Amino acid sequence: MNDLTEEKKTLIEEEIIKLSKQYNYNRQDFPIELVIRKYSPENEEEPTLFIPEYQRALVWKPEMQSKFIESLFLGVPIPPIFVSVIDSDGRLEIIDGSQRIRTINNFISSKFTLKGLENLELLNDLKFSDLSISRQRKFKLINIRFNVITEEADLAVRADIFDRLNSTGEKLTPSQIRKGAFTNSDFYQFVLEMSKIPESFKKLPKKKLIAGEAGELTLRFFVYSDIYKEHKHAVAMFLNRYVQNKQSTNFDRESLKSSFLNMLSFVENYFPSGFNKTSTSKAIPRVRFEAISVGTHLALQEEPDLIPEYMDWLDSKEFKKETTSDASNNQGKLARRIEFVRDCLLNTIKKDDLNY
After folding, report:
1. pLDDT one-digit tens code per residue, 64-89
2. Which of 51, 83, 124, 311 is the most buried (most CB within 10 A)?
3. What is the C-alpha end-to-end distance of the chain, expressed in Å?
């Protein structure tokens, strides 16, 4: 391992101090009564504690909900709820803990019956409304710990925190997280609008479409078409930073749309299977999409009226090697696969230069 210079040690320390400030949080305990009042206020007031759109609906089964409520009754330590202050009005966005908040709210609203409890067996088959008034009050006084992320956390940081916390179970995709984190981003809404245009994406499995794969692919096209040479290994954060930067700068909607549509038209005309490997396959590998879409865009930038001299390169060993998933997010490999497609389309790489 190379010895670190004093200068690099200093830079490392400065970087840690600078970036860690964005992740600062305050620890607070709120009684359940206050939590529910913030989450589900009376008199149709606007909630000041809310769950963003990108998080899933309540997916806990009744047994899991019951187990969690039992833990609260017993005083079992539970992980803190992570929230973020999102505006000057002090509204709190739930980053992690939506299943717990929903479960508590449903229990207090008597929307489910406790079942499967092994310790507090006498509570089985009971609802909150079945409990004595004194026990209901005591339950509402139970404190829930909150880690409140400060206002220094921007949209990208909040999305990153959620991604790090959402590391167990069925993770949300970066697209699902991004969809909620960048709700107010004109650029990202434009990306989602464009993602609904291409016919090729209709070949994606329904599950992929629900998970936002079309939006993910479309975003990668716009980002890599612009700055693929600046790509870093952490793809999700790289894409998030790009979207965030676009919030503070104007973007040429019509120019970007034209480039996207021209690329799609070219692919439809000259690629037998579009972005797919074969005409019958439903999968669109991301590395293949990136190579074809961005490579085509770069080629059209040089020759707007391009007519490729050959398309056999799609079956070449070289193209297969460039679009394998191994280290696919490596900066050099991303550039190589994009430029390979560009150079084949421009006939810079000749047909006889390749192996089949």
Report:
1. 999 999 999 999 989 899 898 877 77
2. 83
3. 41
